């Protein structure tokens, strides 16, 4: 009996961990002046899940993830990350939270005065406070190898293509082993082949680093490859939710318009 | 009309408030630990070494021109021997620090404003912030402290080069030995000429760094904002230099020239 229990317990634990909510948003509202950008956003992100937020430009998708990392504060509602309300955090708490969250910007946001190596070393020395040069070098090479850009280690961001910059940006966020990844339109501005490569890279990295992710996009191929679950956003509200296949069959005209592109 | 004036004033007052908050955040971050020494040294090199040529040429020409302009008047008054003293006192007390600061406002404040403005536009500052690093400590504290240190040093170098320019100009028409000229210059100066000039150039340097960082760090998102940040940094820093100079002269007069 005791042996059976031992077998059941880890399974239960793994399942409970899988169902753990890492981000919980309830009735989040945000306005800039008279413009209401987020009207009533409610969602949960579970551990290990890839949630894609689909919507046209200017619908408040990026504002949602900026609220998650505390770059913006919601006007109303609660946004809990790992059970803590982001809006109520002080600077130190916010800093600690941000170490657990990776944010890939649309442009990659590489520090253009630094080489690729220095870009990757920056979070290791400033955030994780590592001092051992050989350990830092090893980590940098390992993560760059993971995104297939070890050859570009001493190049400046200005020498890289758009796709390469996104890969380096992804490597820079993953190097600190974040538990949550937020992607702001990771494939925008890239050709279809590179977009697909980036989408597959996101999926591979999620499996390798076991992150939970929110992916903001309007690229259907990216959504198809990466999403466990998709929410469709329109005019500051979530109007539909489901898997890629479920939403393909949706009757909602706005949802259908994405799939008929 | 009245509404526009009120809105303008409100915006101006808000700007003052934001600058006070920015100053408080800068000040707190100096002592927050984890000072960025390597970035500070890099900024000292960028700000100090790379501005040296410009400051040197300007100061040299100013020293040369001042002697050429002063000479006829002083010769007419029979005080040609006062030329080294006149140049030394005016250059060390006023012309050197102000000219150096104005040159640095044009070169350094605009470059800091444009650099940070462009980092803001391309989300590099946001990226630093969301990574858990401290962009204020890395970008702002290092730059402001570097300008506060390097502008006085540039000012001292500029003073020396300006006096040398004066020596060459004097030798166009008269003949004076290098040692005699510099002995006359040094003899005419004392502590009360040198110290206030260095102290006020520390404040000039601080104003240049602070304004450049504030304008760049708080620029709007959009490529146009980079130009606005750079331009506004130069104009505001130049105004601050004259404002600080006016106050410094009053304080120096009260303390040293009663």
Automatic annotation (TrEMBL), chain A:
Residues in ABC transporter domain copies: 23-260
Any Pfam family the entry gives: ABC_tran
SUPFAM superfamilies with a match to the protein in the record: P-loop containing nucleoside triphosphate hydrolases
Claim: Transport is one of the keywords in the record: yes
GO function terms (MF aspect): ATP binding; ATP hydrolysis activity
Keyword Magnesium appears in the UniProt entry: no
Keywords associated with the record: ATP-binding, Nucleotide-binding, Transport
Name assigned to this protein: Phospholipid/cholesterol/gamma-HCH transport system ATP-binding protein
Organism: Mucilaginibacter pineti
Automatic annotation (TrEMBL), chain B:
Domain of life from the UniProt record: Bacteria
Transmembrane residue ranges: 52-70, 149-173, 194-217, 237-257
One Gene Ontology molecular-function label: phospholipid transporter activity
Example of a GO cellular component annotation carried by this entry: ATP-binding cassette (ABC) transporter complex
Record keywords, A-Z: Membrane, Transmembrane, Transmembrane helix
Lineage, top ranks: Bacteria, Pseudomonadati, Bacteroidota, Sphingobacteriia, Sphingobacteriales
Protein name per the record: Phospholipid/cholesterol/gamma-HCH transport system permease protein
Keyword match Thylakoid: no
